[in-house]
Design a protein that fits this description.
The protein is of the alpha+beta class. It folds into 3 domains: about 220 residues, HUPs (Rossmann fold, 3-Layer(aba) Sandwich), CATH 3.40.50.620; about 80 residues, 2-Layer Sandwich (Uridine Diphospho-n-acetylenolpyruvylglucosamine Reductase, domain 3), CATH 3.30.465; about 140 residues, no CATH class. It is built from 12 helices and 23 strands. The strands form 5 sheets. A 6-stranded mixed sheet has the order 3-2-1-4-6-5, sandwiched between helices. Strands 7-8-11-10-9 form a 5-stranded antiparallel sheet. It has a 5-stranded antiparallel sheet with strand order 12-16-19-20-21, with no helix packed on it. The chain is elongated, with a radius of gyration of 27 Å. About 35% of the residues are buried. The C terminus is likely disordered.
Length: about 475
């Protein structure tokens, strides 16, 4: 029973070069239909391919019945005579879950568990299907994805392999029905409030009714994009190598002609390759980071995630990874209003929202301020202190050197360049925790721009999070 489905899975594995004879694989199983079909099809093929299989399940502790799911998968593994590994992680309580969606936090926790558990195995088998691939393509399209996003999920990525990526969910359900094998349904998969679920439950069925086979068309698009992506990666690496003038000890030096010497379509890809080489992964590098690097001017610097800094000098562009944020003499970034601006050299974030100033402002300190409503439409910047900076503090009746204000506030000289200075043009409005400029604050009870300085461990004020690179000051 189910031989046709199993034969097609085997053909796909051979075609994509995944799970060769004699391989060992950890099968990631949730108890749902896809992973159950994966488990039983690989189990049926294991003897003929001399595969050594085991089963892994992570309980995310997100639903009261999640422990029942774990017990169900354990029973599945026992019925096939396979070793079983499991763990329970309260995803919502993880420190890394702050600022992430529950789905993303669960995915990261699951990947971490699978990597740890798979140390004795050649691969981790995942149960993604053609339907998952189509959903991923659609999701990435809505995010303005390029070729990499359209490529969606590859058949293999590191230790992770996808033996069912050519099978549809309808194929999966027919296979399980033929075998008479039960599976469990996660009720959150039926909640249309999640964008992926909306695509799965409403968008793709509607498209399929109008354009039969559209799921496989999206999967074919992903395969084509992967081929294009691979070719573009190779081309970028070849052209980039001609511009490298030095490499080693966490540094990569490039000729001054970078990035102009590269075709425009490859410049962002080159930045991602350089970052990935130093950081060990491209995760966390977003479009704004790339744009900031590409627009670097002489003596400018951009602080990227994972402690990577890109800076331009007269001698070229230099990428460097450091353990701590670089002590830059000059840096600046536009403040997102509303939004959340990461200020890497200062080690803080500036959160800006549109709000109404409280009726009583006394005693609130200068860690947060309510700026006048007119600044909502202005371009605000956060930058480093500069020699000669002057500000007009509230109540002083005149201007004062910011350096003298730092001295009065007992800010060590070594820390002053890291203190964020919020400006509108040449005018200093606010130095968090230190000073607010006369006339910058909103009248009590009136519409305002509420700004707060947050330490990295502080919870987000909203789900919107905007990271900005740090550039040479604007003139």
């Amino acid at each position: 029973m189910g031989a046709g489905f199993e034969d097609e899975v085997l053909a796909w594995c051979r075609r994509e070069g995944i799970l060769p004879p004699g391989a060992s694989a950890l099968v990631a199983a949730s108890g749902g239909p896809d992973s159950t079909a994966l488990l039983y099809s690989l189990g049926a093929l294991a003897a003929g391919r001399r595969w050594r299989l085991a089963v892994a399940h992570l309980d995310h502790a997100l639903r009261p019945e999640s422990a029942d799911d774990a017990a169900f998968v354990r029973q599945q593994a026992a019925s096939l005579g396979l070793p079983f590994f499991s763990a329970r992680v309260d995803v919502k309580s993880l420190p890394g879950s702050v600022g992430r969606s529950t789905e993303e936090a669960a995915r990261l926790a699951r990947r971490s568990f699978l990597r740890r558990t798979a140390r004795e195995f050649d691969a981790v088998a995942l149960g993604h299907t053609v339907d998952d691939q189509a959903e991923t393509v659609l999701l990435n399209l809505t995010r303005g994805a390029g070729t990499l996003g359209l490529a969606a999920m590859p058949p293999a990525a590191g230790i992770f392999v996808r033996p069912l990526l050519a099978r549809s969910r309808a194929d999966v359900l027919a296979y399980l029905d033929e075998l008479g094998v039960p599976w469990r349904e996660d009720p959150t998969n039926r909640a249309p409030s999640f964008l992926r679920n909306w695509f799965r439950l409403e968008v793709l069925p509607t498209l399929e009714a109008r354009v039969p086979g559209v799921r496989k068309s999206f999967a074919a698009l992903a395969a084509s994009a992967r081929a294009d992506e691979a070719a573009l990666e190779r081309k970028t690496a070849a052209l980039l190598s001609r511009l490298v003038v030095g490499r080693g000890d966490g540094r990569i030096g490039l000729a001054p002609a970078f990035p102009a010497a590269l075709p425009e379509a490859l410049r962002g890809r080159a930045v991602r390759q350089l970052y990935g080489e130093l950081a060990g992964s491209r995760r966390g590098l977003d479009r704004r980071h790339v744009e900031d690097v590409l627009s670097l001017r002489e003596d400018g610097a951009v602080c990227l995630p994972a402690g990577v800094t890109a800076r331009r000098t007269a001698g070229g562009v230099h990428f460097e990874r450091t353990r701590v944020g670089p002590a830059l003499r000059r840096w600046s970034a536009e403040v997102a209003v509303p939004g959340r601006t990461h200020v890497a050299p200062a080690g803080v974030e500036i959160v800006a929202t549109l709000a109404r100033a409280p009726e009583e402002l006394r005693g609130r300190g200068l860690g947060e301020v309510w700026l006048d409503e007119r600044f909502a439409a202005a371009r605000l910047y956060v930058r480093a202190w500069r020699d000669g900076d002057r500000v007009r503090p509230v109540g002083l009746g005149g201007t004062k050197k910011l350096q003298d204000i730092f001295v009065d506030a007992k800010v060590p000289a070594s820390e002053r360049r890291r203190r964020p200075v919020v400006c509108a043009g040449r005018d200093i409005l606010w130095v968090p925790g230190i000073v607010l400029a006369e006339g910058a604050g909103a009248p009590a009870g009136e519409p305002a721009v509420h700004m707060r300085r947050l330490e990295p461990s502080a919870p987000p004020a909203s789900r919107e999070r905007t990271y900005h690179g740090l550039q040479k000051e604007h003139r």
